[in-house]
Structures are given as structure tokens and as C-alpha cells.
Amino acid sequence: MSASITPLRQKRKCPECGRPSSQADFPFCSPRCKAVDLNRWLSGGYVIPGPADEPDASPGGGGSGEER
Description:
Layout: H1 31-42
């Protein structure tokens, strides 16, 4: 009987360098690429944009809070 084994995950390229990923460091190919990605997260290299922190300066929007 010839049974083929299907891998649970398909091989993917490392998001850092493009080499094939390793099972131990998935989705990266090595501990080095994993550390490079972690450094980007910790240093703020990946930022999710959010609303501006500036107050609304449009008429009737409150602005500086002063009334005239």
C-alpha cells in the first residue's frame, strides 16, 4: 500500500528573507529572522494607524473650548 502523507501546513516563504520556512521557527526560516521581526515590533516599526490626537478645529466642533 502506498499512502502519501499530506503536510498539515504548506511550505511558505520567510516574510523576512524569502527562504523556505522551517518547522521549528514557522513562519520564519531561522531564529535570526524571527529576532529581526521581534525587534521591529518592539522598536515600533510596525504601527497600526489610529485617529489623530488633535482636537477638532471645525466650526461648532469645540476646538479650543473658548466661547465667543
